[in-house]
Amino acid sequence: MSHYIACENVVPRMPDSPFTQPINWQINSDETWGIVGRNGSGKSLLSELICGKIAIQSGDIRYHFPEDPDKNTRPLLPSQQIRKIEFNAAYTLLDYRKLFYQQRFNNSENEDIPLVSDLLPLENISGENRLIFETFHLFDWMDRKLIHLSSGELRKFLIARVLLDNPKMLIFDNPFIGLDEASRNILNDMFLFLLNHCNIRLLFIAPSMEDLPDCTTHILEMRDCMVNYRGEKSGFTPENGATGIPASGINWDDFTLEDRTCESNELVSMTNVEISYGERIIQKDVNWTILKDEKWALLGPNGSGKSTLLSYIFADNPQAYAKNIRLFGRKRGTGESIWDIKRRIGFSSSELHLYYRENVNCTAVVASGFFDSIGLYRKCNDQQVRLAEKLLEILQIAHLKERPFLRVSSGEQRLLFFARALIKNPELLILDEPFHGLDNHHKQQCTSIVESFAQQTGKSLIYVTHHKEEIPDCIDHCMQL
Is 76 helix (H, G, I), strand (E, B) or coil? Predict the structure, then answer.
């Protein structure tokens, strides 16, 4: 048994380094490791260290990658041999800072956006890669704009694109995030295929054991940027669930700064609505009515049109004007502005996360929910700042309040978006896969907060997830696409 990667007394060279102890860790050639730990525990930082993206102050990391018999030379840098796949990797494909969130719904402004075929040239796809492409149905997407892929489809695209580079090791950050059950099963099988038939090793990062693939054999748990456990999967016992401020302690009246109560009992009404991207029809004849006090789960596989359907409700999609849709008792296109609609809704989604590239502090991200903006361009009053900070305290992330948004972990960013959706105690709360990348502690805590929100009179909820076990108990209706 040989070492694949060996870390010996490694101390990262970082300003204000959160690592307080040297890192010692061996990955042997017959082991598949999963790095777990709470949000902000240092999982991603450790993976960046392994990839060679963080310099070493002292100690040593040794790599023993097998030679490729088909090449005379091989890359020497770890960053060239190890590839990391994460949802945020989409930033490297498109400059999302130059795009706006609603742009994918405006066909006239998407002319310069590349097609899938532009980034996945068919001439480079053969052998094992072709099998993976066929399994993920990627050949069916070649004529689609990258910006039109759902979050789950984008995840599959990123995996396939990285495999074309034939890396020696793949690091998957939250491997199943955004994928429906069928896609998760396919990916589980694909991991086994890669391990058994390809010259590649795998490393996984996830907030909890349940989020790791079946092929994982060993666990490294991070806690407060220290290695808390390192060993076989069978010997690992996860830490306990949520503790701290109970969600029942939230006084929702504090977050109701103005009366936004809809006079109509009908919040959403869709009659024979077609869900489409340009000429591509995803769903026909969708009929959906949401009444005040109703709590809905919106379910469906990747690419079934869930996010597009929500864009009709949240006033992001101009196609809504041509459809038979009524929002808050009023037909679309009868004089209301998109801000009249948004002010009644709290919203969080993976797609919004992808476009939020403003490096304001974390308090400002939460407070931007008062104005439904990406970034904070209006000055908050003292009460609004206090409420944003109060939500950070409730979620036990008050230590992040002055930290730049782009300098916190992806899991912590999702918590900030969850707080942003709640900040104005809206009439209609839309949570599109809100628990992506959250550890069990925060999943339980956020679920409790959602239940507390739902107990208020006159509040409605749309909850989207690919994990039915995460659906809150307050859900009393279901829409399946």
Answer: coil
Same domain, 358 and 295: yes
Overall domain count for the chain: 2
**In-domain check, residue 421:** yes
Same domain, 18 and 136: yes
Report, as an integer, the average pLDDT of 44-73: 81
SS3 call for 121: coil
* pLDDT over 80 (residue 155): no
Same domain, 231 and 253: no
* pLDDT tier, 88 (very low <50, low <70, confident <90, very high otherwise): low
- 84 three-state secondary structure: strand
The pLDDT of residue 453 is 95
Residues 258 and 158 in one domain: no
| CA-wise closest residue to 369 among 397, 340, 348 | 348
Q: Say what the pTM is.
A: 0.86
CB 397 within 8 A of CB 438: no
Is residue 358 located within the same domain as residue 418?
Answer: yes
Domain boundary among 178, 212, 235: 235
Q: How would residue 107 be classed by pLDDT, with cut points 50, 70 and 90?
A: low
Q: What is the pLDDT of residues 371-381, one digit of tens each?
A: 887 766 677 88
Is the residue at 128 inside a domain?
A: yes
- Same domain, yes or no: 371 and 431: yes
Per-position b or e across 18-28, b if 16+ CB within 10 A of its CB: ebeebbebbbb
Report the chain's mean pLDDT, rounded to a whole number. Answer: 84
CA 373/CA 378 separation, integer angstroms: 9
Q: Is the pLDDT of residue 100 over 50?
A: no
Cα distances from 359 to residues 217, 370, 379, 479, in angstroms, run 38, 18, 16, 36
- pLDDT at position 321 over 90: no
Q: What is the DSSP string of 173-213?
A: ESTTTT--HHHHHHHHHHHHHHHHHSS-EEEEEESSGGGS-
**Contacting residues for 264 by C-beta, under 8 A, at least 6 apart:** 328, 329, 330
Q: Is the pLDDT of residue 244 over 80?
A: no
* CATH number for 167: 3.40.50.300
Range of the domain at 225: 3-235
